[in-house]
Amino acid sequence: MVVVGIMVIVMAMSDFVVAWWWLGFIVLIGCFVGFVYLHRRSAALRYTIDRLILKFPIVGQIIEKATIARWTRTLQTMFAAGVPLVESLDAVAGEHNNPRTLQLFGDRDQPDQVC
Alpha-carbon distance 40 to 34, whole Å? Predict the structure, then answer.
């Protein structure tokens, strides 16, 4: 008897999805658009997402190493061109697009001052 009850529930869920699939599609698109909107407007959300991305096992390490490589390459180029080290550090710190790495490299005002 339990199997019959479960089968009735599954059939009812199937009928619901067949009848209202378009509503689920609209809700999914609405959630995506809302997330993109909030991501652009909220510095705290951007900071949280970037922090979570950096915690991913493989992707986070790749992003972190690529950021450090870009940071050191730019710093080396500016230092070799004769720009003083302190000014080079300030200019390189502004290059990052990840608020979490900005904070790690010394800009302690994050996430409030994210563009």
Answer: 10
For 35, 36, 46, 80, 112, the CA distances from 42, given in Å and listed in that order, are: 10, 10, 6, 38, 9
pTM: 0.55
pLDDT in tens, 50-76: 888 888 889 888 988 888 888 888 888
* CB neighbourhood size of 88 (10 A): 19
Burial 28-67 (b: 16+ CB within 10 A, else e): eeeeeeeeeeeeeeeeeebbebbbeebeeeeeeeebbeeb
